[in-house]
Design brief:
By secondary structure, the chain is mainly alpha-helical. The chain is built from eight helices and no strands. The longest helix has 36 residues. It is globular, with a radius of gyration of 17 Å.
Length: 187
Amino acid sequence: MTAAAPTHSKLFRHQVLDTPSAQDSFVPMDLREWLDPCDLIDLILETVRTLYWTNCEEDAHGSESPDNVPQIILGLLAYCYATDLYSAVEIVQRAPTDSALRCLCRNRRFHPRQLHLVRSYNRELLHHCLSRVLRRAWEVRSKGIPHSTTTSFDISLRKHFDAESGDRVKRAIEADRRGVVVNIRMA
């Protein structure tokens, strides 16, 4: 008797989907299904470093200046959204006890409002960063699997990862919006 091949749906065992494009995604909601957490962190930090930052070009790499905080938070948010964690309150609560989040925060503590502000002021950068991370994770995961190298295939993939990253940022905004409504109702 031969073992059954893993099904496509096995990759999505943790998905709770509410958008049509997410339902069609072949990317798992938690990229740790594809990559080791340390490799994912390295990939995110590398991606954040390659972004164009107009307000802190003069800062040295790894600087702890206040101008570097948006980069730290952007990396933190990209990791969280890549691992199916969207609520700013939950991110801040988990950071002290989760080693990956603590590493990304560089042992700093943030307030949920700081995460909201960085996301709103740098939404396009976050979207671009997350799209790159999703694509690089897919490239690492699919290494050795034959796929088309045509330009139309590449454009199609880019569009897919852009849509997926946009959906994840929207999920975070919605998660925070729901959290605010719950907190107001409890007050």
